TrEMBL record:
Lineage of the organism: Bacteria, Pseudomonadati, Pseudomonadota, Alphaproteobacteria, Rhodobacterales
Protein name listed in UniProt: Transposase
Gene3D superfamilies, per database record: Winged helix-like DNA-binding domain superfamily/Winged helix DNA-binding domain (1.10.10.10)
Length: 72
């Protein structure tokens, strides 16, 4: 079990990822969209980027193993 706890609820993480994906076209890059959204929810840009990557893996839009496949 992880020794850290999530500072942000699942709802906040989901909304933040959605904001980045919705606003991505308005910015020159995804990273700049992430940097614009992260301060609004008081998280680091890297943390938000990690959340986005996880959503992409879980949905099959990025290579990797979804957590549901790791459970026994």
């Amino acid at each position: 079990m992880s020794k850290t706890r999530n500072k942000f609820s699942r709802d906040v993480r989901t909304r933040a990822v959605g904001l980045v994906l919705d606003q991505e076209a308005e910015h020159p890059s995804r990273w700049s969209a992430i940097q614009a959204v992260a301060p609004k929810i008081s998280c680091s840009a890297q943390t938000l980027n990690d959340w986005i990557k996880k959503v992409e893996v879980d949905s099959g839009h990025r290579g990797g193993i979804p957590p549901s496949c790791l459970r026994r």
